[in-house]
Amino acid sequence: MSTYSEKPRSKFALPIMTVIYVLLIPFINWSFTWAPMWEVLPGWAFNPVTIVTGLVLVVRDFAQREVGHYVLIAMAIALALTAWAAGPELALASGGAFAIAEMVDWALFTFTKYRLSTRVLLSSAIAAPLDTTIFLYGAEIIRPDQLTGPNITMSIIGKMFGAVVIWWIVRSRFERKNVNPRDFQNNE
After folding, report:
1. I need a surface site. Which of 13, 109, 131, 141 has the fewest CB within 10 A?
2. Cα torsion through 97, 51, 36, 18, rounded to 10
3. pTM to 2 decimal places
4. Phi, psi for 110 (deg, rounded to 5)
């Protein structure tokens, strides 16, 4: 039970962050099939979509707050849309990457007693390199030159930026309300 008040949600209210999450995944995945590579330095080109991949993690965290573990159903729907929009290979790569990230997230949130903000940062720091490498390896099958150092770097930076945003929101919210973040588990 929460010690702060929120507006009660109608059980028929549209989970807007979950809808955004379901639409964002296939859009970003589909973008990997056509987005041009940007060369910043000689030999250092990256797909600009890798920068915004961290946005998915931020939106997923908010979607999970809306629908709990049903976020996995939302992910399955998003992967089906990815298969339709970008092909089954990319959906498989994306699904594998999400599965690894979810397992890391679940393990940290289940077995550690760190503050919520700390778990957010640790989860991203551990999962981002794994998730990124698995996804870009799958994307490489569809479009050559996706599994590159610059793409991996930019994707991890994007994901960690998203994690820092969530960390800041969580820390600010708890500090402003004088609530101990350790009082909350996965749903805060």
Report:
1. 13
2. 60
3. 0.73
4. -90, -45
